[in-house]
């Protein structure tokens, strides 16, 4: 079993995260990342490889969703929803014009949104470069934050994910990132004023 985990673990993390973020919300991408990080803590996998696979898969999956949403999303929406689709598409275009970057970033930490944000951004016509910038930043923050939290918290992270779900783990990761970022900015301001 250990050989199987070492041989295929990182690839499995990549595949599961990719398919979840590309639009299959019932696939447990975040659980795969947490499990991979816990296995890295136990010495079965490389933490760098697990996080790199998760970040790469998250970015590639959302990009795939964006491209598919841009290419055929409107037709699929209209076929499924009929006349209501036009209003929803108009609203999504307005939303992504105003809040697209924040939506792409924060959607990483909410399971259903993580699986659909690429599609919605594509259907909503979000600018490609703006989408990619926030896609990479969000994917990196999610992968690094969740991966490090699971690695350092180990079994406690798995139990928290089971008890509170991905939103709880994502919230902790976002809080940690905000505290670290705020501390860094505060230090820079103090150094600049000295």
- Beta content comes to under 5%
Low-confidence stretches: none
Helical residue percent band = over 70%
Structural class: mainly alpha
Q: How many strands in all?
A: 0
Radius of gyration: 18 Å
What does the main sheet amount to? none
SSE order: HHHHHHH
Q: Output the number of helix runs.
A: 7
Report, as a whole number of angstroms, the end-to-end distance: 57 Å
User: Looking at the structure, what is the overall shape?
Assistant: globular
How many structural units, i.e. domains?
Answer: 1
On the 0 to 100 scale, the average pLDDT is 82
Describe this structure in words.
The protein is 88% helix and 0% strand. It has 194 residues and is mostly helical. The protein has one domain. Helix 1 runs parallel beside helix 3 (47-81), helix 2 (29-41) runs antiparallel to helix 3 (47-81) and helix 4 (84-107) crosses helix 6. The protein is globular.
What order do the helices and strands come in, and which of them pair?
Blueprint lengths: L1 H20 L7 H13 L5 H35 L2 H24 L3 H13 L4 H26 L1 H39 L1
Helix pairs in contact: 1-2, 1-3, 2-3, 2-6, 2-7, 3-4, 3-5, 3-6, 4-5, 4-6, 6-7
Q: Could you write a compact summary of the structure shown?
A:
The protein has 194 residues and is mainly α.
Question: Which descriptors apply to this entry?
Answer:
194 residues, mainly alpha
């Amino acid at each position: 079993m250990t050989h199987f985990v070492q041989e295929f673990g990182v690839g499995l993390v990549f595949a599961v995260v990719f398919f979840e973020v590309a639009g299959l919300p019932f696939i447990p991408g975040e659980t795969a990342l947490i499990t991979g990080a816990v296995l890295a803590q136990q010495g079965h996998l490389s933490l760098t490889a697990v996080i790199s696979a998760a970040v790469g898969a998250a970015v590639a999956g959302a990009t795939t969703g964006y491209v598919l949403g841009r290419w055929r999303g409107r037709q699929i929406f209209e076929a499924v929803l009929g006349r209501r689709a036009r209003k929803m598409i108009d609203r999504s275009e307005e939303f992504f014009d105003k809040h697209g970057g924040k939506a792409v970033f924060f959607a990483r930490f909410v399971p259903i949104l993580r699986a659909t944000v690429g599609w919605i951004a594509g259907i909503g016509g979000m600018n490609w470069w703006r989408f990619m910038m926030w896609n990479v930043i969000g994917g990196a923050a999610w992968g690094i934050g969740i991966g490090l939290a699971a690695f350092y918290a180990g079994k406690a992270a798995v139990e928290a994910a089971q008890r509170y779900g991905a939103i709880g783990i994502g919230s902790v990761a976002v809080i940690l990132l905000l505290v670290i970022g705020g501390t860094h900015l505060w230090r820079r301001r103090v150094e600049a004023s000295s």
